[in-house]
Amino acid sequence: MKPRQYSCGLDAAIDVIGGRWKALILWALHAGPLRTGALRRSVDGISEKMLIQVLREMEADEIVHREVFHEVPPRVEYSLTPLGVRLNEALVPLGDWGEDNMRAIARRRGVEPAPTH
Amino acid sequence: MKPRQYSCGLDAAIDVIGGRWKALILWALHAGPLRTGALRRSVDGISEKMLIQVLREMEADEIVHREVFHEVPPRVEYSLTPLGVRLNEALVPLGDWGEDNMRAIARRRGVEPAPTH
DNA sequence: CTGGATCCTTACCAAAAAGTGGGTACCTGA
DNA sequence: TCAGGTACCCACTTTTTGGTAAGGATCCAG
């Protein structure tokens, strides 16, 4: 549901990373560029369809860069733009908060906590 | 779409603040407790129904505290829990990122940028 | 009685997001 | 030909989130 006007920076940012998969994809790319297949394996539970759909959206938002290599088998590589890198940096405290409170969040929502690493 | 297992802290956090309204409500409460009506006026565009629905979810997630004052007219006050305070702190960098990139985000998504303050 | 204050619930619908299944393209090798 | 590799698209369905409208409760004042 797109607001007609953002009320603040947080409103805009939430719009960019909203949905189930975007933040996870962003994080999967933080260590470096990945091809479609590698990305899919990095993001547990995502379907190829959703992966490609969401990557296209992120590309349109210019937080992700998509590079096509003309070779066979086809090879497409996704990487963070500088904007995406800064977004990922901004997401670190949020990820930490989630980590710190993982067990409680998971319990309240009836979800398994993330494996410890 | 609830994951059966969180993959990391960020996954859990995104689950907690997901949707159009939660982050905005969290932010509205950062300066102090607010009654339902005041909250509704603080969060542009939200309907009473959505406000109450989302507040109930946030209460269940224990990021928001709901206090009923037995008086007339009825008065219910919402405030951040310590967990909610820390979540708000974790959202600051994300809000800053959104502010820094407001015009570009708004343009790409066909939304009006937030008024400058 | 009606109108006002406050807060909340329900029924139903709309819109958006996510998912499933089928298919396509480029090729190579057996 | 079939099987494998890679990446992607489309049609349709399901699920989730958000929205509208109507109703309710507690009271007080005119």
TrEMBL record, chains A, B:
Stored Gene3D superfamilies: Winged helix-like DNA-binding domain superfamily/Winged helix DNA-binding domain (1.10.10.10)
Keywords: DNA-binding, Transcription, Transcription regulation
Keyword Nucleotidyltransferase: no
A molecular function (GO) term: DNA binding
InterPro entries membership: HTH_HxlR, WH-like_DNA-bd_sf, WH_DNA-bd_sf
Protein known as: Transcriptional regulator, HxlR family
PROSITE patterns according to UniProt: HTH_HXLR
Occurrences of domain HTH hxlR-type (ranges): 8-106
